[in-house]
Design a protein that fits this description.
heterodimer, A: 565 residues, 3% strand, globular, B: 181 residues, alpha+beta, 2 domains, 7-stranded mixed beta sheet, 5-stranded mixed beta sheet
């Protein structure tokens, strides 16, 4: 079929890129990596400050840079990359033209302008309010305005994704249903839309308050709505990186989802229930009833946790099935032993999966349990948790995907393949140590967002145990390792884009091919007679055991503290 | 053939589940239910539950209540700033003010006795972090949070602010005494 738009088929992967979409994917991915670079440099400075023995920065600069680090990483890096993923999953995977590329450039411009605006407010010292900017702590109006502009841009990006799905459907660029990975991206986009709407609902009045039009903003209302934005934006990440896991399993192993029904239902559970999880940020707050807290944080009986536990089985399960199909059938674990551990696309994805589940997932449920939250709230355990989810989970998954995109999307041979081989291990293990040490320090009561736990100069200082300082030192070492891993990623990606050998891109033409349904097809999945992925099931049981033990250890610990009612 | 292609069957939602998936879903769901029931269970049988008793309050009203409490039960003063130490009787209403960048006053409670602790902030948001118990509660301006506390061990405790509240955040720390009589 021919149209008016220009397409090319990548000769290595067979993926079909729409020229306008391709440029946008590149632009958003590059903006993301720039944000990662800025956030990463700051990460080094703040890690070396919280490592109490080094204590690099002064207090004012520490709090300022911590604000910038939170936003540039948690919001800017991931959302730019996610917009790139949304365009890729719609236009490229569905072989469709991207809807309204001009509007997509407007969205991109708004996001860039917004990012620069709030960063200027932060770096001039006018908005040291942390990522959360809890009222009534005042920030410069440009800070809120920048965030709003960025959010509007991202929102337009989400609608362009939806528009592209409509275009693809109308122009019949694919047969059957959209692929699972696109379905996961759709989940992310839907969550993104109500997340960004929540952000607008609270940030617009806060902006008006900062310029004096609104007299006051209720702090509890602010927290309730802000977290519908702040936490839900992390659910966009979860949906996006789970989609990336499925994509990588497909790309590296040709793995087929164990069952479309289960995986897609699990994604739908995210849409329905993850949003409520935002309430766990309010568990230690006054003014909200116990019933409200318990209902909302049990994620409506933990159905969102269930969804993640399902993906945690079906992603490696589909890899196991694919590997067994290739003949790696010896014992329970030959399929994973013989996996391509030297391929950073795979190793990055697999470390992301393990780190997200064991470190991020389990700790997240602890914090989200009403009573257990009291012994965790606002301690450094909290950043320990979300670095496991967003850095090991999301960031490492995105890094792994980049190694696939460099030759396919950017048509460059990756430079320094030897370093790339080690990069996921350096980054993932460094970050794992960092997160565990933070959780350890948090269990000892070390507060988050705190410049000096020696309380020098305070009239009534508290003395933390020596172990707390040891934990912060281990955190520092792990953090530095991870930052070296992050620097390696940026070196490899930027270096490949600039100096990598140019690869044949395939010529642009007006010809486009329809995405056909696969013709092979065992119609009943893998056959439900046997246990198709026994190795994965054993892994899942190990995970469950760790989860159950750690859960009850925390209850035991809670039972020893002061009586509270 | 794979997750980046359309499902192999047009009617993919009728594809049967693999047994391994089904078994795992059942186990995971059962575990989720256990976790859900732990929270209500602890409200009935556990001794550590965060109170939800809250009132709207104006800072000056709360200040007055705290000052009256200090006038009644002050036992001594500490530090150069002469922060009063208050030893209220068991069962009393105890007021603790969070403000930039201090806790006021210092409390002296009795081991094993129960008190009604009132918390609020005079300005920004703060975090009440009792160490080494590691009990952490958010403190909001305009809201008076009342919780019943029963200290179970004598000793000197620290109260650290663990919500970022501006330039002097890391100096906002105080003491709390629990004595045995």
């Amino acid at each position: 079929m021919t149209g008016t738009e220009l397409f090319r088929v990548d000769p290595r992967t067979g993926l079909q890129y729409h020229k306008s979409a391709e440029l946008l994917i590149k632009a958003n991915a590059v903006a993301a990596v720039v944000a990662l670079l800025v956030g990463g440099i700051i990460a080094l400075l703040i890690t070396l400050t919280r490592w109490q023995a080094v204590h690099l920065l002064d207090a004012e600069r520490f709090y300022m840079l911590l604000t910038a680090h939170g936003l540039d990483m948690l919001v800017i890096w991931v959302i730019f990359f996610e917009i790139a993923i949304l365009y890729f999953c719609s236009s490229t995977l569905l072989r469709s033209r991207l809807a309204t590329p001009r509007l997509a450039w407007l969205a991109f411009a708004l996001m860039v302008i917004g990012t620069v605006t709030f960063n200027v407010a932060i770096f001039t010292g006018n908005a040291t309010v942390m990522m959360t900017s809890y009222v009534p702590l005042p920030g410069h109006p440009a800070f809120y305005l920048g965030l709003i502009l960025f959010a509007v841009g991202a929102l337009i990006g989400c609608f362009i994704f939806l528009g592209t799905l409509v275009v693809a459907k109308a122009e019949k660029t694919y047969e059957g249903s959209i692929p699972l990975v696109t379905f996961g991206a759709l989940t992310a986009a839907i969550i993104a839309i109500f997340t960004i709407a929540s952000g607008a609902i609270i940030l617009i009045p806060t902006f008006l308050w900062s310029i004096g039009y609104v007299k006051s903003i209720d702090p509890l209302m602010y927290r309730t709505i802000w977290w519908a934005f702040g936490h839900s934006s992390q659910q966009i990440n979860v949906s996006a990186h789970v989609a990336v896991w499925y994509a990588i399993a497909a790309i590296v192993f040709g793995a087929k989802p164990m069952s479309e029904r289960v995986s897609r239902t699990a994604f739908v559970l995210y849409i329905l229930f993850l949003q409520l999880a935002s309430a766990h940020h309010l568990l230690a707050d006054p003014g909200l009833s116990t019933e409200w807290k318990v209902f909302n944080t049990s994620y409506a009986m933990y159905l969102a946790v269930l969804a993640s536990m399902i993906h945690g089985l079906t992603v490696p399960g589909s890899i196991e099935v694919a590997q067994r199909g290739k003949g790696f059938t010896k014992g329970l674990f030959e399929w994973i032993r013989k996996a391509p551990w030297g391929n950073p696309v795979f190793s990055g994805m697999f470390i992301s999966l393990i780190g997200f589940g064991f470190l991020g997932g389990i700790s997240g449920v602890m914090m989200g349990t009403e009573q257990l939250n009291m012994i965790i709230h606002n301690t450094i355990y909290v950043p320990g948790h979300f670095h496991a989810t967003v850095v090991i989970g999301t960031t490492l998954a995105f890094m792994a995907l980049t190694y696939f995109l460099i030759p396919s999307l950017f048509n460059r041979e990756m430079i320094m393949p030897g370093l790339a081989k080690w990069q996921p291990y350096l980054f993932g293990i460094g970050m794992g140590v960092f997160c565990l040490a933070m959780m350890g320090a948090g269990t000892l009561g070390v507060p988050r967002r705190h410049w000096d736990i020696t309380f020098a100069g305070a009239s009534l200082p508290y003395e933390f145990p020596g172990t707390a300082y040891l934990m912060l030192a281990i955190m520092g070492v792990g953090g530095v390792l991870a930052i070296i891993g992050g620097a390696a990623y940026i070196l490899i990606t930027v270096g490949s884009l600039l100096f990598g050998k140019r690869l044949d891109a395939g010529a642009y033409g007006r010809e486009m091919t329809v995405l056909r349904m696969p013709v092979d097809t065992a119609l009943t999945g893998h056959g439900h007679a046997g246990f198709v992925a026994p190795g994965t099931f054993v892994f899942a049981l190990v995970f469950l055991t760790a989860f159950v033990l750690y859960y009850f250890v925390n209850w035991k610990y809670l039972s020893t503290v002061w009586g509270l009612s | 053939m794979s997750a980046i292609q359309p499902p192999a069957q047009r009617i993919w939602w009728k594809q049967p589940l693999d047994k391994v998936e089904l078994v795992w879903i059942v186990i995971a769901f059962a575990w989720c239910m256990v976790m859900f029931f732990m929270m209500p269970y602890w409200h009935v049988y556990g001794k550590q539950n965060l109170s939800s008793e809250t009132y709207r309050v104006r800072p000056e009203m709360f200040s007055r209540a705290a000052e009256e409490m200090v006038a009644k039960w002050k036992v001594r003063e500490e530090t150069d700033e002469k922060i009063p130490v208050v030893a209220p009787p068991a069962g009393a209403d105890v007021y603790l003010i969070a403000r930039l960048w201090a806790w006021w006053p210092i409390l002296e409670l009795e081991e094993g006795k129960t008190y009604r602790l009132h918390l609020t902030s005079m300005d920004y948001q703060h975090g009440f972090s009792l160490q080494p118990e590691n009990v952490n509660v958010q403190v909001l301006p305009g809201y008076e949070h009342v919780m019943t506390v029963t200290p179970n061990r004598a000793g000197t405790y620290g109260i650290v602010c663990n919500e970022f509240c501006g330039a002097g955040h890391h100096k906002m720390v105080s003491k709390l005494y629990v004595v045995k009589k």
